[in-house]
Amino acid sequence: MTKKKSKHPTLSEVAKKAGVGTTTVSRVINGGQRVDPQTLARVQKVIESLGYMPNQAARILKGDRTRSIGFVIPSIADPFFSSCAEAAQAIARAHDSLLIVLTTQNDAHAEVESVNVLLRHRADGFILAPGNSQSQVLRTLLKRVQVPVVTLDRPMEGMPIPAVVADNFAGARMATRHLIDHGYRRIACLTGEPTLYTLHERIKGYQKEIETAGLEMILDASIKDYRSAEYAVESVLAAPNPPDALLTLKNSTTIFVFEALQKLGISVPERVALLGYDDFELAATVRPSISVVQQPIEALGRTAAELLFSRMLDGAGAEKDRGKMVELHTRLIPRASCGCRPPQN
Question: Of 3.40.50.2000, 2.40.50.140, 3.40.50.1000, 1.10.260.40, which CATH number belongs to 11-54?
Fold first, then answer.
């Protein structure tokens, strides 16, 4: 019985046709270092003509890189994280690597399991947006991880893990100052999930600017869906001394609050102004258009991936980057909902 010939060309077949040893072919596949330029070109031509693809499973068994990185985020349905994932994927492709996306819904158990899945599949490194950076189980696990890790949007405070975040504190101060400069004096801050790093920092920024201006802080951190947003809006506007402006600290909160104002027939910005944190697709097209703090979302995902590959490929850079925090600037997009005149098309 004759042995059936594999339809996939082998490394030995490439070496034979190119007239070189298998070690030379391996060097060409791994970047061509210490290979004569003419030999390099000849082997590459043979690889292309045969359609040879390296056996990744065999390379992994030998201890080579898997050319895969993980991306652990709360949800792919959230435009913020899906845009970050697309930006990170572009960087991974440029490094001939696969991006593996896992979602956690901010559940601590799912988060730990996702990290373990990546470790079992021997990912070369991963980017993590931790739901709870104080989770002792997660912190203990990350201390044992032997591959590079970068956190996105939410740092693991007190740990030597680099983080890429937006300037949440400064962004919220800027938004609050913008409303104060418009003449608003009772500015209510509406949000949910106040323990998340990003929202905690934004609350602090709002609080700092309110205190600096000598105004009263009005905070409702109970919003988690439309119903709670509608209740919060009704409650603050029914108060004896209602707010004349609303600052919402998350795009979903902004959408819920805007819908509640529309349903209740509250005119914006005439009766109450609105300014949201995070831009979203329809913010510029609804009426009135919604003023927002815009985060550099693509830059956040891209920077996190670039930092991860830097740590993976550059030993000195990896040591230098331990525990660093890269903070990217936000910008204010003024539209009609805060009382600004929308830009003319």
Answer: 1.10.260.40
